[in-house]
Amino acid sequence: RMRRRQVECRGDIDTFTPGLIALYESLKPSEEHKSKQQQLVDSLTKSVSIEWPNAQLHLYGSCANSFGTSHSDVDVCLQMEIGTGSTVEILLRLAEILRTDNFESVEAITGARVPIVRMSDPGSGFSCDICINNLFAVANTKLLKDYAQIDQRLLQLAFLVKHWAKLRGVNETYRGTLSSYAYVIMCINFLQLREPKILPCLQAMEPTYALTVDDTECAYFDEVHQLHDFSAENKESIAKLLWEFFHYWAFHHDYRNDVISIRLGKTITKQEKNWTTRIGNDRHLMCIEDPFETGHDLGRVVDRQTIRILREEFERGAAVLQYDHDPCVTLFESYTL
Ligand code: CTP
Ligand code: MG
Q1: Residue of the nearest CA to atom 13 in ligand 1?
Q2: Which residue among 107, 136, 165 closes a domain?
């Protein structure tokens, strides 16, 4: 298939910024949404504390990393000593307790990479995933939240990209496309690579925060209030950045050789990571390094077919922003088979 490489962005791209910002504003969760989430956390805390009085409840994922929309679910991590029991036993017991406490559709999903209990809260209708002792998720949640405070264009870009990915059907890991988390990491890396830079590389700076998980030190500079004018020299609009984002993933990213790394604030080679061949189910066709679990490729589920779908969607995104007369609508047209 021939790829036409677009080089220059249309001259009037900035005229679409107000429309995109308005869309971003409409996606932000309301105060009511946040207070309902808090109520769910409170009732969950109550349910859990009787059986496990020493357990600590952490929110992670989009309800705590500031990338949550009003459609996002609630992700909870229980931190506890598990003694002689196993995580799976704890999850099965937890599912029992939640059913007794009238949560709905309670289901223990124990075969996943991160085993969870999934349930729905009848009061709010929220869906909620609960995992045990997954402190990497707690650390990466804080990292994303801290990045979001440096320049507001990260939140804007990531909300638009997540929204686009959901509507275009490319936000489904069980079907071989990418998680919301992977999209946010792609946005961070992209902004680290702008000239002038919009985001720094917090893990390359003098650490002011550290959490040790298993044998891995999750450390980075978290005094982000000191970085409020880091990006002052870059004046790119959100419309331009969104076009550049799609353009990068459509035409510039070297899928054959490169891995994106927010840990290092650049791209590195598959060779350096030993990600050159398929190992088990990890195909390494689109490589996105997890910032802390560095052996973990967030694009590992992408296969030969879905990489083609993803690249076509990136190309479509770039083309719509380039040529369409109403890109703020066309870009987000939902794709159904
Ligand atoms: N996570 C992870 N490793 C992955 C996927 C997810 O550590 N491969 C953790 C991250 O902490 C992430 C959280 O699980 O923030 C939730 O993942 P996901 O549902 O992809 O992202 P959300 O930000 O919660 O997105 P959404 O708004 O779509 O719920
Ligand atoms: Mg989530």
Answers
A1: 61
A2: 136
- Say if residue 90 is in the same domain as residue 224: no
**Distances in whole angstroms, Cα of residue 14 to Cα of each of 23, 55, 243, 306, 321:** 15, 50, 11, 32, 11
Q: Decide if 126 is inside a domain.
A: yes
Q: Give 263-307 as a DSSP string.
A: TTTEEEEHHHHT-SS-BTTB--SSEEB-SSSTT-BTTTT--HHHH
Helix (H) or strand (E) holding 134: none
For residue range 161-183, list pLDDT tens digits in order.
999 999 999 999 999 999 999 99
- Same domain? 255 vs 193: yes
Q: Which ligand is nearest to the CA of 173?
A: 1
- In the chain, the number of structural domains is 2
We report the CATH number of the domain holding residue 88 as 3.30.460.10
Its ipTM equals 0.98
The residue whose CA has the least distance to atom 7 of ligand 1 is: 137
Name the residue range of residue 64's domain.
Answer: 31-136
- Mutational test site, ligand 1, from 65, 180, 282, max ligand atoms within 8 Å of CB: 180
